[in-house]
Write a structure and sequence with these properties.
Helix content is 31%, strand content 24%. The protein has 506 residues and is of the alpha/beta class. Strands 1-2-3-5-4-6-7-8-9 form a 9-stranded mixed β-sheet, with helices on both faces. The protein has a 5-stranded mixed β-sheet with strand order 10-17-16-13-14, covered by helices on one side. α5 crosses α6.
């Protein structure tokens, strides 16, 4: 959720940029080259004409399919091209404003039309740790795009290039409008500039705060009767803080909570939005935190900086008067802070479309009770196409990748356009060792367990191809003319792709 929300499985692999052709069929390669040229040309065109939401598009780069597969998130079907976008939306008062985000697009999908998915990110305090900066969490959205889906990732109000002054954390209304409008921007981008169509299926998902955002977006679409514009094929929120009232009450009841900065950030956000929670920081925070903490919530610092400055128990940093007043009103819930929490609860309603709630029972940051409360309320409300899945005994951080795998399976099952292409998914990625010795000083040998012509390619970490050739079962080549460093060896057979990392040390 905060900046501790870093994916260790990604840290080493997502910085290894290897540019490869994932599909061996020469016709698909030619198609990809044509489409890439077309897209690069079209993004230079000013978005006018029919575009009403999208303001500007800037291409940021390409993430190769094998690198996504190597990361462990999913087995990619396509390379992914990703863009920073700015778009029109509204602020918390409904006034026009501008926000930013990212759109990730599969390159040369084998389908004529594909879905659009919203991926809403978790809570960040640092204003620049957002998808349009191509941060680590945006790699999840790119991975989803590699399965043949256009993915829209909002930065939210108050983050990225947003003109709004402060990020309203867990504010359902502004999360929803920022998400709805980037979906509009994505639809315009597909219609104006991409060589395939939108299949008229929308999937809504997100992790942590993003789970709350996805839920808020779905409710906004339903409440405002926008189903014709946004045909929701599935709502799949992951580990979201849906019962904000319930979790806040638990945390303020003096348990040890590892993310105290998040508590202060939430209450300060509601003060920024509603203007009636407290008069001055000393009404909320004890000394010295009343002067120490608020200046650090200005978007220039990460949670990892602020969290260690606060004690773990709310009674040690919140004023006794604030805490006592909070619990004194826990029945009538009429005070401004309770009203703010209730206004942003997002679990007790009746979705008219498929819902799958994903969570981990050992989550120490967003308690499992949020998902259980949502499931129970929706069941009582008569929601029939409703699923819930406990991913397992994982922490908030460790739950990300296994939950994401369930998300992709769900989308693949529910989408009605063409599925993952068999010509790609039949080629299985293997990290079985086919190279030796490693490290290599003079001669690198490659051996694969099958006969027949195969292709071999070697790439440096910066994506440069240093070798491309055809091989049978065995292949050897001298490395004396190759600069020392780390390289990727890719061998493509008729049924499998082998990818090995090798170190050249001569």
């Amino acid at each position: 959720m905060p900046e501790v929300f870093k994916f260790q499985v990604l840290k080493t692999n997502f910085h290894r940029v290897i540019i490869v052709n994932y599909v061996a069929n020469i016709l698909l390669i030619m198609k990809s080259q044509i489409v890439n040229t077309l897209i690069s040309f079209l993004v230079l065109i000013s978005f006018t004409g029919n575009s009403q939401t999208l303001i500007n598009v800037t291409e940021l780069g390409v993430l190769p399919a094998p690198l996504i597969t190597f990361s462990g998130i999913t087995e990619a079907d396509y390379h992914v091209r990703y863009y920073k976008v700015t778009y029109n939306t509204v602020d918390v008062s409904g006034n026009p404003t501008v926000a930013s985000g990212m759109i990730a697009v599969p390159i040369s999908p084998l389908c004529d039309s594909i879905p659009i998915a919203l991926y809403a990110h978790g809570a960040v305090l640092l204003k620049t740790d957002i998808p349009s900066s191509s941060n680590q969490e945006s790699d999840l959205g790119k991975a989803l795009a590699s399965r043949g889906v256009v993915v829209a990732m909002p930065d939210y109000l108050g983050l990225g290039d947003s003109q709004f002054g402060y990020h309203p954390l867990q504010h359902a209304a502004s999360e929803a409008t920022a998400c709805v409008d980037i979906l509009r921007a994505a639809k315009e981008f597909v219609a104006d500039s991409l060589p395939f169509d939108f299949s008229n299926e929308i999937f809504l998902t997100g992790y942590s705060q993003g789970g709350h955002s996805a839920m808020a977006t779905a409710k906004y679409i339903q409440d405002n009767q926008l189903q014709t514009e946004f045909n929701i094929a599935g709502l799949i929120p992951m580990s979201g803080l849906y019962n904000i009232e319930g979790q806040t009450k638990t945390v303020l009841n003096d348990i040890t909570f590892g993310y105290p900065a998040l508590v202060v950030y939430l209450i300060q956000s509601y003060e920024y939005v509603y203007g009636n929670i407290y008069s001055q920081p000393s009404d909320l925070l004890q000394s010295p935190y009343d002067t120490l903490i608020p200046p650090l919530l200005n978007g220039a610092y990460a949670f990892d900086v602020v969290n260690p400055l606060l004690p773990g128990k709310a009674s040690q940093y919140l004023t006794p008067s604030f805490v006592s007043a909070f619990f004194a009103d826990s029945i009538s819930k009429s005070t401004p802070v309770w009203q703010a929490l209730l206004a942003n609860n997002i679990y007790d309603w009746t979705p008219a479309f498929p819902v799958n709630l994903l969570y981990c029972y050992a989550d120490e940051l967003v308690f499992q009770q949020n998902s259980l409360d949502a499931y129970d309320a929706m069941t009582l409300n008569g929601v029939t196409d409703l699923e819930i899945e406990d991913i397992g005994n994982y922490s908030h951080l460790d739950c990300v990748i296994p939950a994401f795998g369930k998300l992709i399976d769900y989308i693949n099952d529910r989408r009605t356009d063409c599925k993952s292409p068999s010509s790609v998914s039949d080629l299985k990625i293997s990290t079985e060792s086919v190279v030796y010795p490693n490290p290599v000083i003079e001669i690198l040998n490659v051996q694969i367990p099958s006969d027949g012509a195969s292709s071999i390619e070697v790439f440096s970490l910066d994506g440069k191809m240093v070798l491309s050739d055809v091989m049978n079962r065995f292949y050897s080549f001298p490395v004396r003319n190759i600069q020392p460093g780390i390289y990727f060896v890719k061998v493509t057979t008729s049924s499998k792709i082998f990818i090995n990392k090798v170190t050249i040390t001569h």
